[in-house]
Inverse folding.
């Protein structure tokens, strides 16, 4: 009895449903046959523990139809297979798939028990943060295609994109960790060996170990200089070649001088050298570098259309289907596009009616209908029946993909000079002249050797360790804090660029509006309850997204018995009830005139127009308040690819000085950003779809909005979770203040340097002074910066 | 105090061993995925459990006989 009152929830995917929709199997409710089938497969293979680890762990799947069977046919092509495999010795093959559906521990469990589903899979291992599964299987018994079909059958279809074919199997960068490990090892041991130097006075027993310790220290610091510090030398040489004075030049100079002078002291037995300072310096510098480098394994900032596009497509040659790689498509080719497949090239629709979802491209998730003869742009996803198109371009020359050939995509945006480098330019010249002047002074006073001593001392003590550390630690800490608050930034220089922003440009659809929520509104003659019931029954069976929205809108009404329902593709639904003809659908189908500004669905009885259901994208909460706060400090622009039907609504929400631009194409958006930059503006672009990709790339900072981390985002400098968009201004102001903190820490670093230089030019720099001063200056600056940025990021907590 | 040479030598070797272990574990990818193993170790392998139960039940049968 109580069960009836409880809400029915799909045992597999957790979708709420009404009783009439429920599919019962094995005493458990399912929302659709797709979910039921997955349960069936898992249950049969004794994998039902999947459902006990987490409640409703599944992802809703569409029913597996005949088309899906053909979907992975391209994997039988040996050339494509070869490119996808990680390892192949003829018998055993290893493949690594990216599976976006991985989201919980049940997923890990079931994917690591694939061997129970098929005995020819010998091993499978999930990397949860990266959402990948590595599968080892017996090549003679099971094919790659069968494995992918197996994964698809349990609702974990791998995403195999064009990118997988082209990327070099890249190795993750572990070099920095090796360097850091070796520097840390050497630093720790050298500190111990340097102990005798800290004991003042003569005649202690430890004195006689000094030479041995000296040689050990020398040996330990050789790998530090030649391996751990290697990147600094390379960067300094690169800088010199390009005639750019960067901070690494001073660091490289400091390390060289430290090492040479210490080695000289050990060899000539004149002193202990500065090995502890040397190894400590390198260790701290690398630590700063490591701290600054944060990787969000599960996010990718470099995606372009290649991560969306499929590998292969079905080509029709003389009524025969043939699998072709995307790159081999030529204008004039006839292509078969099935349900849920992405259209890879611009083309003309030749057969059937297309229903194309451009949400990857525009952020608009309501599909667009196309009739035979219409032009279809690449990047859309077909929903529904299969269609045939004739290609009018190849992949690289389609309207959308041409964008990636433009200049902005060729240059590396992060190659610009950063703050530390700008300051260190002056710093370097100052230090070099101080070294030279004090050298000349000591040359005339006490001779050549003292002069060399003083010059090297100046270069050692002036090594800008503190200077080089403050920015990495400040930005690194802010990067982490932003990550906690769901703003994932590519690297530290993005935060620096963000601090200089004075202009903000927003995309509309999918950025200011929610990506999958629509408001349904009925306009026209008032409908009776009976009519509403009829409409609900009409749309129930339809798979058209608008039908689903209307069905949801009329949820509370019961169903009626209709005599006849027919769905006519690209037109609408027709039904008969008590000898009357009801029609729901496009304007001319129902005898209406469409003004074609908004998405709507018309309703008529006996060809008498009743009214229409209007679908409007829902604006995100807090947008109005956000813009009100932003308008005081920033120039605001809206660039929309849609027509201006939303103009009035936007005007009401947004402050007056926001510039609204409509009908902006992919290239317009990019050009507009460029024109702002030419006026000297520092522009931040906030967008979501592939049509913003150009603008995101062109802007000084491009931010992609993501509803959840499963979805694709175009290449950008940062990914902001949609729910955090209303507090964008806080992120901006925190970045600005971080820059101030860095300026203060630079001042502190200079003070330390002046003290150090005081010792050096007066020829008082002993190894002990260096060994104390250098770590203290570095550590205190790191602490200072970390605490202050920590306080700054508290601001982000306030809702 | 000559013994100090020996102890220093040993300590350096020990430290070096740890360094090599660390570097090799980085190389083997032990730090690449720090999340999944923590979930994996909590899975009860019910397939092995079933087998065990089977053997236990057959054993008890035998003793009963």
């Amino acid at each position: 009895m109580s069960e009836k009152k409880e809400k029915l929830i799909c045992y597999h995917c957790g979708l709420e449903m009404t009783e009439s929709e429920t599919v019962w199997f094995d005493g458990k409710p399912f929302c659709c046959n797709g979910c039921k089938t997955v349960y069936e497969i898992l249950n049969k293979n004794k994998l039902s523990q999947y459902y006990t680890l987490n409640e409703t762990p599944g992802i809703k799947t569409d029913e597996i139809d005949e088309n899906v069977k053909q979907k992975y046919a391209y994997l039988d092509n040996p050339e494509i297979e070869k490119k996808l495999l990680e390892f192949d010795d003829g018998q055993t093959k290893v493949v690594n798939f990216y599976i976006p559906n991985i989201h919980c521990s049940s997923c890990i469990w079931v994917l690591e028990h694939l061997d129970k589903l098929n005995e020819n899979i010998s091993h499978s291992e999930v990397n949860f943060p990266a959402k990948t599964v590595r599968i080892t299987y017996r090549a003679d018994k099971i094919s790659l295609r069968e494995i992918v079909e197996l994964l698809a059958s349990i609702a974990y279809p791998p995403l195999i994109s064009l990118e997988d074919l082209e990327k070099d199997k890249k190795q993750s960068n572990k070099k920095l960790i090796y360097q850091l490990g070796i520097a840390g090892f050497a630093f720790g041991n050298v500190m111990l060996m340097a102990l005798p130097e800290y004991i003042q006075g003569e005649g202690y027993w430890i004195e006689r170990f000094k030479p041995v310790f000296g040689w050990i220290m020398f040996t330990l610091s050789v790998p530090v200089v030649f391996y751990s510090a290697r990147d600094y030398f390379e960067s300094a040489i690169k800088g010199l070649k390009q005639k750019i004075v960067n901070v690494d030049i001073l660091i490289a100079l400091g390390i060289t001088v430290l090492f040479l002078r210490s080695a000289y002291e050990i060899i000539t037995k004149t002193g202990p050298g500065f090995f502890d300072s040397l190894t400590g310096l390198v260790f701290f510098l690398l630590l700063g570098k490591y701290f600054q480098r944060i990787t969000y394994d599960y996010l990718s900032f470099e995606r372009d259309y290649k991560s969306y596009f499929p590998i292969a497509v079905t080509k029709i040659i003389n009524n025969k289907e043939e699998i072709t790689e995307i790159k081999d498509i030529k204008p004039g080719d006839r292509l078969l596009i099935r349900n849920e497949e992405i259209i890879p090239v611009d083309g003309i629709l030749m057969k059937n009616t297309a229903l194309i979802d451009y949400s990857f491209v525009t952020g608009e998730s309501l599909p667009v209908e196309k009739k035979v003869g219409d032009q279809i742009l690449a990047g859309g996803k077909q929903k529904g029946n299969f269609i045939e198109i004739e290609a009018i371009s190849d992949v690289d020359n389609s309207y959308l993909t041409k964008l990636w050939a433009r200049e902005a995509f060729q240059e590396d945006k992060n190659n610009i000079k950063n703050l530390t480098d700008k300051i260190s330019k002056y710093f370097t010249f100052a230090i070099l002249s101080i070294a030279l002047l004090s050298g000349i002074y000591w040359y005339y006073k006490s001779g050549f050797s003292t002069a060399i001593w003083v010059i090297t001392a100046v270069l050692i003590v002036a090594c800008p360790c503190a200077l080089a550390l403050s920015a990495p630690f400040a930005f690194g800490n802010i990067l982490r804090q932003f990550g906690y608050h769901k703003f994932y930034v590519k690297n530290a220089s993005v935060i620096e660029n963000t601090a200089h922003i004075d202009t903000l440009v927003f995309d509309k659809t999918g950025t200011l509006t929610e990506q999958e929520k629509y408001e349904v509104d009925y306009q026209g003659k008032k409908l009776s309850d009976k009519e509403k019931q009829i409409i609900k029954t009409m749309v129930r069976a339809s798979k058209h997204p608008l039908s689903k929205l209307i069905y949801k809108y009329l949820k509370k009404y019961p169903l009626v018995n209709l005599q006849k329902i027919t769905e006519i593709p690209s037109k609408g639904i027709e039904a008969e009830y008590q000898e009357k003809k009801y029609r729901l659908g496009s304007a001319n189908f129902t005898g209406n005139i469409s003004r074609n500004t908004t998405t709507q669905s018309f309703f008529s009885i006996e060809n008498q127009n009743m009214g229409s259901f209007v679908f409007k994208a829902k604006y995100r909460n807090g947008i109005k308040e956000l813009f009100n706060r932003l308008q005081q400090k920033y120039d605001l622009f809206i660039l929309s690819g849609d027509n201006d039907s939303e103009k009035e609504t936007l005007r009401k929400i947004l402050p007056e000085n926001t510039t609204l631009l409509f009908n902006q194409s992919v290239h317009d958006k990019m050009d507009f950003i460029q024109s702002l930059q030419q006026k000297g503006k520092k522009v931040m672009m906030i967008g979501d779809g592939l049509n913003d990709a150009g603008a995101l790339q062109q802007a000084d900072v491009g931010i992609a909005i993501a509803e959840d981390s499963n979805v694709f985002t175009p290449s950008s400098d940062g990914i902001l979770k949609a729910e955090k968009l209303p507090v964008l201004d806080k992120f901006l102001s925190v970045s600005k203040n971080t820059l101030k903190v860095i300026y203060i820490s630079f001042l502190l670093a200079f003070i330390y340097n002046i003290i150090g230089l005081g010792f050096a030019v007066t020829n008082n720099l002993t190894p002990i002074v260096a060994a104390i001063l250098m770590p203290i200056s570095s550590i205190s600056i790191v602490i200072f910066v970390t605490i202050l940025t920590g306080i700054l990021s508290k601001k982000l907590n306030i809702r | 105090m000559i013994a100090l040479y020996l102890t220093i030598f040993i300590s350096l070797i020990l430290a070096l061993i740890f360094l090599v272990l660390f570097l090799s574990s980085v190389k083997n990818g032990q730090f690449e995925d720090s999340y999944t193993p923590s979930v994996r170790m909590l899975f009860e392998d019910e397939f092995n459990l079933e087998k065990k139960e089977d053997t236990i039940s057959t054993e008890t049968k035998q003793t009963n006989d």
The interface with chain A takes residues 1, 4-5, 8, 12, 15-16, 18-19, 22-23, 26-27, 31-33, 35-36, 39-40, 42-43, 46-47 of chain B (CB under 8 Å).
